[in-house]
Amino acid sequence: MTKTFCQVFVTKDHDMFKPIEGNRPLNALHLRRLKKSINDHGFLFMPIVVNEKMEVIDGQHRLHCVKELGLPVYYVVANGYGMNHVHVLNENTKNWNAEDYMNAYADMGRQEYVRYREFRSAYGLDHNVCMGLLSGSTTGKTVQERFKSGDFKVKGYAKACEFAEHLILMEPMYAGWKRWTFVLALMGLVGKDGFALSEFVDKLKLQPTALVDCANVEQYRDLIERIYNHRRREKVNLRY
Question: What is the average pLDDT value for the chain, to the nearest integer?
Answer without folding.
Answer: 87
